[in-house]
Amino acid sequence: MEELAAQDSPVHRLHPLAKLLVAVGYILAVMSFPKYALTGLFAMLLYPLALFQLSGIRVSTCFYKLRVILPLVCAVGVANPFLDRAVALRVGTVAVPGGVISMLTLMLKGVLALMASFLLVATTRMDSLCASLRRLRVPGVLVTLLLLTYRYVGVLVDEVSAMSQAYALRAPGQRGLHISAWGSFLGQLLLRSMDRAQELYSAMLLRGFHDHFHYVAIPPFRRDSAVYMATSAAFIALARGVDLPRLLGGLFVR
């Protein structure tokens, strides 16, 4: 993700605060769609697809990075077809229950929100995002927690990998972690994480850390960032207020 954020493109050069505000507004607009407004959400796809093209990042990269989270997001609305069986749409002689439409709407909402979040992180350095959050008067404790979690989640993954490898060496031929070892494994991981966290915190204190970071300097707000914010806000408001796919479909049918 840091390598993606270090690239150079028109989207990468935008002001981080502008990208943050637009991403938050986009996610809020996506989540505000009614549960049966499936066609209206298709217009919201234009925003992330345009940013993917302008930033030079492939859509496949996004889905590959989020391959673990996407199934969980899509599984949220799986029970809707069984809970809402009233017919909401007829395609020829096929009756489509409302639960199917609401399930697809919920899935698409989750995918769009993840795509917007991925684009924000993939085109903006985390230090710049944290500095933008501080400008919005977000509490410093929360911003510091976000920055440390992003920076050192790899350390936790390395600890899990080392412990898993050690367990595999002591249990040859066994697939995965036996259920009887889950408790001790998690307890050992907690103790090792606390020890590593104390070492990191001591190193931070030796380097002059006092309750907050000195974030990177954010460049001035330029005209291109203002145009980006205004254009994005206009599109989001239009796509949220008007069902563009249905409107265009009606025009073509006529």
Structure description:
By secondary structure, the chain is mainly α. It has two domains: 2-125 and 217-253, no CATH class; 138-206, no CATH class. Helix content is 69%, strand content 4%. It contains 13 helices and two strands. The chain has helices at 2-5, 16-31, 38-44, 46-55, 59-65, 69-74, 80-83, 98-122, 126-135, 140-170, 182-206, 223-241, 244-253; strands spanning 87-91, 94-97. A two-stranded antiparallel ribbon has the order 1-2. Strand 1 and strand 2 form a beta hairpin. Helix 2 (16-31) runs antiparallel to helix 8 (98-122), helix 9 (126-135) runs antiparallel to helix 10 (140-170) and helix 10 packs across helix 11 (182-206). It starts with a helix and ends with a helix. The model has no long low-confidence stretch (mean pLDDT 80).
Task: Give the topology, please.
Elements: H1 2-5, H2 16-31, H3 38-44, H4 46-55, H5 59-65, H6 69-74, H7 80-83, E1 87-91, E2 94-97, H8 98-122, H9 126-135, H10 140-170, H11 182-206, H12 223-241, H13 244-253
Antiparallel strand pairs: 1-2
Helix pairs in contact: 2-8, 2-12, 9-10, 10-11
A few lines on this structure:
The protein is built from 13 helices and 2 strands; from the N terminus they run αααααααββαααααα.
Features:
single chain, mainly alpha, 2 domains, two-stranded antiparallel sheet, 69% helix
User: If helices are DSSP runs of H or I spanning 4 or more residues, what is the number of helices?
Assistant: 13
- State the order of secondary-structure elements, H for helix, E for strand: HHHHHHHEEHHHHHH
Strand percent estimate:
under 5%
Query: Which stretches are poorly predicted, pLDDT < 50 over at least 5 residues?
Result: none
